[in-house]
Write a structure and sequence with these properties.
Layout: H1 4-16, E1 22-24, E2 32-38, E3 43-47, E4 54-56, H2 64-71, E5 83-91, E6 106-116
Parallel strand pairs: 4-6
Antiparallel strand pairs: 1-6, 2-3, 2-5, 3-4, 5-6
Length: 125
């Protein structure tokens, strides 16, 4: 049985597994750059320089590390728009996607090249 201090230590160790400030390396030819954010009933991507939100699927296996990073933003702060990503993926034709069909498109990620709690300077706002 773990003592109280052992439990606290274990919790801190587990939280640090995904509290890094970045994942992967920058990729100048990634097909998409922007921010991914999650909330209770929404999961979205916003391309750099755009205002439109595009749905993402929380169950997309390519996003698992990004989701883990976002879920620890309360421990290690992230950019207000979410986690910055550089990824390869496809954007669907226009339709109704996401929670209650509130998005016109959905992004399917193939590969996350880079993810960071804040974007590199002069990259994306």
């Amino acid at each position: 049985m773990l003592s109280r201090s052992g439990v606290v230590g274990l919790m801190l160790a587990l939280a640090s597994c995904h509290s890094s400030s970045q994942i992967g390396t920058r990729n100048p030819v990634a097909s998409h750059r922007g921010f991914i954010a999650f909330s209770f009933e929404a999961a979205s991507f916003r391309s750099c320089g755009q205002s439109a939100l595009i749905a993402v699927d929380r169950a997309d296996p390519a996003l698992s590390d990004v989701i883990d990073m976002f879920d620890t933003c309360d421990l290690v702060p992230c950019h207000p728009s979410g986690v910055y990503v550089e990824l390869d993926g496809t954007i669907s034709p226009e339709g109704n996607y996401g929670h209650m069909g509130m998005y016109y498109r959905i992004l399917t990620a193939r590969k996350i090249h880079y993810a960071a709690r804040t974007p590199p300077p002069n990259t994306c706002e």
